[in-house]
Each structure stands twice: as structure tokens, then as C-alpha cells.
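Case study.
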Amino acid sequence: MIAVFKREFAAYFVTPLGYAFIGVYLLCSGAFFYMFTLTSGTASVGSVDVSVMFTLMFFVLMVTVPVLTMRLLSEEKKNKTDQLTLTAPLSLFGLVMGKFAAAFSIFLISTAVMPIYGLILARFSPEHFRWAVIWGNVLGLIMLGAVYVSVGLFVSSLTENQMIAAIVSILLNIAFLLSSVAAAYVKTGFVSYALTEISLLDRYTEFTVGIFRFSNMLFFISLTAIFIFLTVRMLERKRWN
Amino acid sequence: MIEVKNLSKRYGANKAVDGISFTAEDGKILGFLGPNGAGKTTTMNMLTGYISSNEGQALLNGFDILENPIEAKRRIGYLPEHPPLYLDMSVDEYLSFVYSLKKSKMPKRSHLNEICELVKIADMRKRLIRNLSKGYRQRVGLAQALVGNPPILILDEPTVGLDPKQIIEIRSLIKKLGKNHTVILSSHILPEVQAVCDKILIINKGRIVADDDAESLSANLSADRKLVMQIEGGLDEIKKLLSSVDRVERVTVGRETEPNVREYEIEARPGADVRRDVSKKLANRNFPILMMKSSELTLEEIFLKITTGDIYGHTETPEPEETKKAEKPGKAPVRSKGGDRKK
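After joint prediction, the assembly is written out as follows.
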């Protein structure tokens, strides 16, 4: 697992993919931080509001994380390097976790910029700023990132084509976003309820407005676990076909 | 030591591998021979756990590949048909990745040095795999299989795409490795298998059609005595004369090579040498012999004969799928020793 992690992690910096992801992440979060926190109207009246930035990052990650994960398994299948990894003395779970950890680490490295924004706020508005707001939001962001990485990893196991993997993961992420919208149009009670509950945005928004709920944490973690499990099953299934 | 029992793989209704059984012993090289699509690669993929079998069992040094995959895989070095290389890595990076992937306990630096010397890629180690030629990629693929010094080596067409000099090098390397490893290699090139392997399995349409050691297989097959002659004289007379020779089974008339000269093909009974009798008889009647050669089957002909069922006495007639399945559920592979050819 560690070998797979090291290889995948290094591969992100051999191709421009890792740099590109981190770059886009920093650019977007920096721009949002400047526009909606530093120079927004709410800041001028004396409060410190980072919720807009974190909400917008939801949409940025929805599109960029699939690009990060698209090649993880599809490329192996295409280049037949899976004949090495699948015949090595390594469990499928170990393989999938190695890949997950590599992509997730790139995401975590990018997210490490968030406390820097916190430092800036702490310096310029110490009377209004509380670190708990930053940590709560970062925690939500990390949970969200884990879900997106696992979704992307799963989709990557379905196809040999990286572009298809990226597009399908983005669509799947959008589906998770829109499920609460769809819920409004569904008359059947329990379906509507289920659709509302699986919406990532609603749960994530609670983090950004400062509500920390254990059930939300559990939801993100289980969703990640489910997609990792499905990925392992998918690899398993391919051997039987 | 590899023991394979009744291994099968189905793709839908199509049986890619149909109940094959064999044993590969330590310190021997087993060759898989068969035309494209015979099931060689599928069998190897099943042995290495890349795909799963539908039926049967494969034991690698006693470990079942499906029930105890990690232990079994620890004992295998696999070179697939396309070497599984990460093009964005250098040879060194790649080999140390494989080293840690296989969780090898050997001393890393000296072990990798040794392998690189063995497959002659020592001066390519800093190069990106992307920039290597096909021959070098194949060697890196072989190096990858050797990392961790696994007791079993499974090599799928190891010499494909190499130039003749490289082919000879790789073959002698495989022979060397065969002394202290269990090696299975596949090929559709007969001389290669014959040159390298101790034991040959010929598979066709997912079944083993011949299973023999290399020497007796070729000895048995090339003993198929046929004479090709060019004789001057009247066609009917000569044909009659030749047919009357003791132990001659069949005479076929070929093309006319020169005016009044024809080519004749004489098939004798197995083991019989009729050259002297034929020439005496012809000389008595004053028919000049312009050419006589015994046509030993070329390996290609042998191969065709076996795979079309001519030599080992069983013909692969296409049967409808349903009746085949109904009649022979889990039928054992057709095996025959060299001795009982041409019943």
C-alpha cells in the first residue's frame, strides 16, 4: 500500500496534474478569500465571514477533484500496468487505499492554505476572528474532499478512458448536489426524504455556517467508505469477467 | 512447482480455457505452445491471479491462487505479453517501486544491481522507460519479474519484438534461470520452445492437445517418413512400380518439373526406410532418379498437424456448443504420449 501511495503521489508531480490541481485550488480559494472575505461588505461592518469562500470551494472541488482522480485506475487498465499491481502480493484493498491516499494527500496539501487565511484574519481583525470557524470549515472541506476522491476513484475503476472517468465523476458529484433539488419534485415521501438526506451541499453548508453535527461527519465518512468498498468490488468483479 | 487441475475459463458461452491440467516441476522449463487465441495468455493470467478461473485449481508451491492469493503471488514473477511498465518512471525508479510492491526482503541495492546485470540494462538505469526501445522495455519487463527472486517465473512470449541477437540472449538467460526456478513460458514460435524448454504443452482452442518432453515430441513427429522424388519416365508405369515396393503405403503424383519428369511423394509405413528398395526397383527398370529427399516434417507442419488433430489421432471437429457441453461435462483434457501416434 505504501509503495502504491509513493508511486502515485510522485506521479502527480511528474505530470503537471498535481501542480495544476494545487494551482487552481490556491487561485480559486485566494480569489474568493479576497473578494468575499477581505473586501466584501460584511467584512467592512466588522464581522469576519469566510462562509462564502468555503461554499464556493464546494463547487470548485466538485469539478477539480475528478481531474485529480481520473487516471488513478483507468490508466493502469489502459497501459496494462494493472497486470503488475494485481499480480503483486498486495490485497485489492491495499491497492485502492494506496491510490486513495495519494490523491487525498494532494488535496490535503492544497487545503493546508486555509489556516494561512486564518492567520491573516487573526492579524487584521483579532476582535472578530475565531479560529473555531476556520477549523470547522476546514474539517467540512476535508470530509467533502474525501467523498469526492472516493467517487472519482470508483468511476476511474469503471473505464479505461480518463476523460470519461473525469466527466462521469463530475456528473455524479453534480447528482449529489442536485439531489435535494430533485427531492422537491418527488411526491413519494420516503424517496423525497432520502434524496434530501444524501445531498452533500446541505450537509456541507452546515459546516460553513458553523454548525458541527456528528451525523454529518458520519455521513461523509460512510459515503467515502462505501465508494472505496465499491471500487474494491469493481476490481474484484473484473477478474471474474 | 505448479500444479494445475482442470482449470477452465469461460467468457460468456465461449470457453477460452477448457479444463486443462498439468504440472510444472522445479528446475524445469515448461513451454506453452499454441496459435494465437489458443488460451495461453488466459491460462497464464489465471495462474498469476490476474483473472479468476471458473473451474479448477492452480497451486503454486502448494498455495492456491484463489484461496491464498497473497502467499501464492509472493512466489511468482510474471512477465505479461505487454510488459507492465510505467512510462513516466526511470528504470531505477520503476524497479525500486516493484521491489517495495513485492515487499522483497532481499538487500535492495545489490539485488537490483544483480538483476540489471543479468538482463543487461545496467547502463539504462537512469533513463525514462518512455525513451527505451521495445527490446529494452522487454528486458525491463523481465527484470521486473525477477525482482524478489520468486521461485516461479511465468513469461508470456518473452522474446516477442526482439531482434535475433536479443532473442538468443534472452533465451540463454531463460535457460540459465530455468536451472533454479520453475519457469513457464509461452510462445507461438516452435523452434523457440524447442530450444529452451524441457517439456512442451501444445494447446489449441483452450485444450491441451499434446503434452510431452521436447526431445521425444520432436523425435516422434519428425520420424514421419516421407520421400519426395523426381523421376523421369512414364507416369502410370512409375506409379505402379512405386506402389508395388514393400512397405510403401501411398504414392502421390506431384507436378511435372521438367518434360517427362514428375515429382512423386511416397509415404512409407511408420518407422520403415524404403529408400534402398525404391531406388533398386527404379534402377532395374531404367527409370533415372533425378532427386530423392526424405521430407521430414518441419516444425510448422508438425504444429499444424497436431493442432488439426492429424498426428495424435484426435480431430478437432467443430461441434455445436450445446452438444459439446452436454456430452462432455468437465471432460478431462485429451492427453496422449508421443508413442501412440497414428493409430
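Observations recorded in class. The CA atoms of residues 304 and 310 of chain B lie 8 Å apart. Chain B touches chain A through 29 residues (CB under 8 Å). We will return to this complex in the next lecture.
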